[in-house]
Specification:
Elements lengths: L9 H18 L3 H6 L21 H10 L9 H14 L11 H7 L17 H16 L7 H18 L7 H17 L18
Helix pairs in contact: 4-8, 6-7
The structure holds guanosine-5'-triphosphate and magnesium ion.
The site of guanosine-5'-triphosphate (GTP) has 11 residues, from helix 1.
Length: 208
C-alpha cells in the first residue's frame, strides 16, 4: 500500500510499477494475462495523500507547501518564495551556476565547480538562465552573514528586486509584483529548474 502526504509521487510510482509489470509480461508473452491481472504477483494499492487537519509547526508547513502538498490558495506565495530563497541561499546549488557569470569568471579565472547544467544539446530556457545568473550574482556579492536573520532578509529583498527586472514584472503595486515574482519562482523550483534540495535532513542514525 502506497501511503504518504499529498503530491509525493505515490500514483506515479504505482503507474511505473504497473508499466514495468506490463512490459515484462509482454516480453514473456503473457500480455493478455497481465491486462486481465487476475493473479498478479504483487497487488499495489494507491491511496490519496492525507495530512493532519492542522499543522502547527511553521517550518513543517512551509516545507509541505513548497512541495505542493498544501494548496497554494492557503499559503502566502510571497512568504513561500522567501522561504525557498533562504534555503537556496544556504545551499550549494547556486554555485553550479557560476559558469554563466562573466563577472565571477573574470575574478575567479576558471570555474572549478563541477556543473550539472546542460552544456551540450539542451537549450536552457533563457529566463531560467537569467534567473539563475541573477541569484548567483546577488549571493556572490552579498557581504553579510547568512546565519543572521536580518542579513538574510536583506539579501532576499535585494533578490526580489532583481528578479522583478529579470522576470519583467512591472506594475505600480509592489505587493502584486512580489506575488507574481513569487509564483514564478516557486514554479521554477517545483519543476526542478533551480536545482534539487533536500528539505528534511536525513537522520544520521535510524532508530527503530
Ligand atoms: N521530479 C519528480 N517528480 C515526480 C516524481 N514522481 C512524481 N512526480 C511528479 O509529482 C507530482 C505528483 O505526483 P503524484 O504521483 O500525482 O503524487 P501523489 O503522491 O499520488 O499525490 P496525491 O494522490 O495527491 O497524494 C506530479 O506532477 C508528478 O509528475 C519523481 O520521481 N520525480
Ligand atoms: Mg495520487
Amino acid at each position: 500500500m502506497l501511503v504518504g502526504v499529498p503530491n509525493v509521487g505515490k500514483s506515479a510510482l504505482a503507474n511505473s510499477l504497473h508499466q514495468i509489470g506490463r512490459v515484462s509480461a509482454a516480453e514473456k508473452g503473457k500480455f493478455k494475462h497481465a491486462t486481465i491481472a487476475s493473479h498478479p504477483n504483487i497487488y499495489i494499492l494507491d491511496t490519496p495523500g492525507i495530512l493532519p487537519p492542522e499543522i502547527l509547526d511553521a517550518e513543517l508547513s512551509s516545507k509541505l507547501a513548497l512541495t505542493g502538498a498544501i494548496s497554494d490558495s492557503l499559503i502566502d506565495q510571497s512568504d513561500l518564495a522567501q522561504y525557498f530563497l533562504s534555503i537556496l541561499n544556504l545551499s550549494d546549488e547556486y554555485k553550479k551556476w557560476a559558469k554563466f557569470s562573466t563577472t565571477y569568471n573574470n575574478i575567479a579565472g576558471t570555474c572549478g565547480c563541477g556543473s550539472e547544467l546542460e552544456t551540450n544539446g539542451n537549450q536552457i530556457d533563457f529566463v531560467v538562465q537569467a534567473v539563475r545568473l541573477a541569484l548567483f550574482e546577488e549571493i556572490s556579492a552579498f557581504k553579510g552573514n547568512m546565519e543572521d536573520e536580518n542579513d538574510m532578509v536583506q539579501l532576499i529583498e535585494t533578490q526580489f528586486t532583481t528578479l522583478r527586472n529579470v522576470l519583467n514584472v512591472t506594475s505600480d503595486s509592489c505587493g502584486y509584483m512580489n506575488n507574481v515574482v513569487s509564483t514564478k519562482l516557486i514554479n521554477l523550483y517545483r519543476t526542478g529548474r533551480l536545482g534539487h534540495y533536500t528539505l528534511d535532513s536525513f537522520p544520521r542514525t535510524c532508530e527503530f
